[in-house]
Amino acid sequence: MSTLLEKAKLWLTDTFDTETKKEIQHLIDTDQDQLADRFYKDMEFGTGGMRGIMGVGTNRINKYTLGKATQGLSNYLNQTFSNKQIKVAIAFDCRHNSKSFAKIVADVFSANGIQVCLFEDLRPTPELSFAVKYLGCDAGIVLTASHNPPEYNGYKVYWADGGQIVPPQDGEIINEVNSLEFSDIKFNANENLIEVVGEKVDDAFIEASVKNGTFNIEGRANLKIVFTSLHGTSITAIPNAFEKAGYTDVHIVEEQRVPNGDFPTVASPNPEEPAALKMATDLADKISADIVIGTDPDCDRLGIAVRDLEGNMKLLNGNQTMCLMTNFLIKKWQEAEKLNGKQFVGSTIVSTNLVNEIAASYGVETKVGLTGFKWIAKMVREAEGKQEFIGGGEESFGYMVGDFVRDKDAVTATLLACEIAAEAKSKGSSIYQELLQIYVNNNFYKEHLISLVRKGMDGAQQIAQMMVDLRENPVTEIDGSKVNFVYDYEASTKTNLLTNTVETIDIPKSNVLIYETLEGTKIAARPSGTEPKIKFYFSVNAPLDAIENAKNVEAELDAKIQRIIVEMKLT
Known about the structure:
Elements: H1 2-9, H2 18-30, H3 32-39, E1 50-53, H4 63-80, E2 87-92, H5 98-111, E3 115-119, H6 125-134, E4 139-143, E5 152-159, H7 169-178, E6 194-197, H8 199-213, E7 225-228, H9 238-245, E8 250-252, H10 278-287, E9 291-295, E10 302-307, E11 313-315, H11 318-335, E12 343-348, H12 354-361, E13 365-369, H13 373-383, E14 388-394, E15 398-401, H14 410-426, H15 431-441, E16 444-453, H16 456-472, E17 477-478, E18 481-488, E19 493-496, E20 501-504, E21 513-517, E22 522-527, E23 533-542, H17 550-567
Parallel strand pairs: 2-3, 2-4, 3-6, 7-8, 7-9, 12-13, 12-14
Antiparallel strand pairs: 1-5, 4-5, 9-10, 10-11, 14-15, 16-23, 17-18, 18-19, 18-21, 19-20, 21-22, 22-23
Keywords: Isomerase, Magnesium, Metal-binding, Phosphoprotein
Protein name: Phosphoglucomutase
GO molecular function, one term: phosphopentomutase activity
């Protein structure tokens, strides 16, 4: 505790403003546990950049932790591009302090001689990715904490291609940041280097979204859509995209239209959760809508609810959405005679293997990377000039259409979802029937996710110990089926438990462990890079001979998942 106290007392020096010093002193005097939580570690880049609770301290998002990250990035940019005028783009979402944090970040960049294109108001994260390339920037920043609770904020770093930073750049930037003292931050802005941007970039982004996300589908006017922005940034872009694409029967959930960092109508602004979309699905039932779409606060992920075979609204999971989108995109490329063996789609190690099967049925390669769209963007960058990227996604409700945006993009993916639904409806089918047909053509895959939250210093230790236990005592049988492969992405090994042979995995190291059985069941364990939780991903599958038998097969797969959860003592 004495070391933590010394660390905290550094925040009582003249480097920090009066308000910060007052709060630190109050914590020292009255709340040692809270003080420890705020200083036991430093904010660091994870799979989604830097994300955490707002407040004073090294383990919080505040003026100084953001300033230090930006000063380190400024130093790195100035070292990397020493002979040019460097330019960065900055966007921010609807969260508390996002706008003021964005200005602080802009001030630090400009104080270091870097030109800044700062969005005039909140914008979707994918628009920032687009803007980096469109404006010819060398890097980009977005202030957002995605779907986290209201007390969170965050900072994501993008490179010149519009993708998030990856190794070795992320490590080099972190080293630069860690070499700094808070007193090294230059906060005094050069306002002449800060340009406010807005409508021009908006128009170009929407035009590109419509171009990439639509396919001359008939029946758009007949598709009844309910849309909710969940109090987030998508309200600035998706209604315009609908209009330009020709979707006219759009009904917005008015109670959730206005951006609000408190997210007052939902417990969590996470489109993965049916409760977050309840207002939208209720409205859909009231007006007999065909499809519901809701986006998270920074508009990079989307949840889609459609009518099942009984006519009830059903929220698709992220794996189902990416399978529908990938199948549709490849089919459209095939119809346009654009497939020549040089195309690929992107996925991640914890996403469904069904995507790989779908792509293979068309003769298209699936590249699989670590969790996070920065790895899909890296695939695209490395394939430039050799292969074409069709689309890619991951299980956590994100999808990327084409390469004009190098991150998950709920604006373009929303249009794509509606194209699939409109085409299916015009042919007397439905988006849900299209999904079931994919299962008939391949296998019925069912996925499930459990997240165990373990907060604070003790929680971090518990999560670390869980991973140690899973590695030292590997599961050898799951629901009566032998485990044949254990993938350890931290050790970069693929171990065949049946033959005792070990292969090397050629993917960057990550703290992920995956078990795979002889019958194709897959379980992955992964500590979150941005939240105090460990995630367990389950995937099971079985043949489906006809659409009318889908309900029975799904029930069998659900029961199998529940047996595995009990078997692994995760209840």
